[in-house]
Each structure stands twice: as structure tokens, then as C-alpha cells.
Amino acid sequence: MPVRVGTTLAFALALVAGCVPDGAGDAVGDPEVTAFPARSTWQITLLEPPTLADVDLDVAVWDLDLFDVDVEVVEALQARGTKVVCYFSAGTWEPFREDADDFPARIIGNGYEDDAFAEERYLDVTDPLTLELAEARLDRAVAKGCDGVDPDNVDLHLPDTGFAISEADMLAFNVALADAAHRRGLAVGLKNSIELFDDLAGHYDFAVNEECFQFDECDAYAAPFIADDKAVFHIEYVEPAALDAICAVTVPLGLSTLQKNLVLDAPFTACP
Fold it and tell me: Which contacts qualify for 95-104: CB closer than 8 Å, 24 or more apart?
């Protein structure tokens, strides 16, 4: 799909000036997207995609890897009333993905800062091709029947990517990405990126957070998401025994909290 380069650059300029209102860039007549209400129960499994034998898990939402999940599993989950969110990385190149060869060297930067994911490399979100490739993944999500998407690594103004990515650049990319998802009828979640809430929360339909309890940031989700009845799908990478203390803080806030392993395999513990 052609990239709307002029629109993206216009967003960047407007954001620098601080004048992009909530909802700006939404195309007239965009399809209605699925709602993800606050306090929805959920599970996320990226390392081991579920099979048809696993779909009877009693959760409202399941977050699954876009490339690994089978259409038949998506359909089976939806048939029992479970909404399906499809995960992909919007801001890093992963050499093991089937579309990895579509990413030219000019948009691939430094290695990911977390040693657990050292094979990933940051992308240049100021290059229009990066958005075009993300849109191709949104098309894949539509083809698989996903209700929404969970684009990861959307705060590249913070790490040493090897590129000069400003906060305005990152905001422009994220707004354009949300707009592209909505044009396709996909709900879209904002991953982490708490410092960008003021400009982005109105463009996103739910949030996905990793370790806000550890960093004492969970209350940041109360106004822009929970107050608007948007789900906050929250993960803490701790031992299950540590979850009670976390739930005592996050449940009153309205977050949907899980204890998970860092590799995001099947085991999880949820707050009551």
C-alpha cells in the first residue's frame, strides 16, 4: 500500500508545534473497530502459539503472535467469544520473520538493548518505508481475522537506535500507524510509551504495558485509558508469589494484570 508521506510529515510538523488534536488524521468513514473495555481478562502467548486444543481458556482477549497464529485458531477463539489481538514489532527488524528480506539495510540500525532479544535491530521510523512495511503487517492481520493489533517497540526516541529519531518523529509514526490500523477496521494498542500519552492516548483503543508496577508508573493509565473505558493489558515479569502485592495496587486502578515469564510462553497467573 502506498505510504502517505505528506500526511506523516505534516503530523511531525504539527506535533512539533503541539497542535495535533485527539482524533486528527482519522479518515472519514473509517470502519468501526472492536472495543476493548477496561478490566477485560486476557492472556498473551508469543513463544508457543495455541492450538485448537487450547482455545477453551476462559479469557475475553488473547494476544498472539501475528506470524505464528493459525487462522483456524483465530476463528475458533472468536467463535467462543474471545477477541484476538495480533502482536508484531513495528520498530525492530527480526531476522527470523518471513518478511525479513523486505527490510533494506538503510532502515536497520543498532542492535536491541535487551540481551534477551539481541538478534533484533532497531528500525528508522523516519524513513517512509518503515511505515509501509508496518502497514503490510496490518494487512496480514486483516487477512488472519485479528480484531486488533499490538505493535511493539514504538518508543524509539529513547534508545540508541543508530538514527536521529526525535520525540516528534516517534509521535508522527505512532499516529500514522494507529490511523492505518483504523482504516483497516483494526483496533490498536499503545505499547508502553507512557511519556507520549498526552499526544497518543486519544488515537489508541487500548494499552499494553510491561512492568509499570516495577517502575511505579501504573497510575499513569488511570486518566487516559481506564477513565475512557479502554483496557490496559498489564504484564509483570515476576514470580507468581509476588503477584498479590501487585494486584493490590493495579486492580483498584482498573488494570488487567498478569504475571508472565519474560519469553511470554503459555504459563500465567492473573489477578482475581
Answer: 95/119, 97/67, 98/67, 99/133, 99/136, 99/137, 102/133, 102/136, 103/133, 104/129
pLDDT-based confidence at residue 117 (cuts at 50, 70, 90)? confident
Summarised one tens digit per residue, pLDDT across range 174-183 is 999 999 999 9
* Cβ pair 200, 154 in contact under 8 A: no
86 φ, ψ to 5°? Answer: -110, 120
- If you ran DSSP here, which 8-state letter would residue 162 be given? S
Instruction: Tell me the C-alpha distance between 137 and 220, whole Å.
Output: 29
What span, in angstroms and rounded, lies between the C-alpha atoms of 261 and 21?
38
Q: Which residues contact 80 (CB under 8 A, 6 or more apart)?
A: 55, 56
The yes-or-no verdict on residue 24 having pLDDT over 80 is no
Q: Please, what are the domains in the chain?
A: 5-17+41-270 (3.20.20.70)
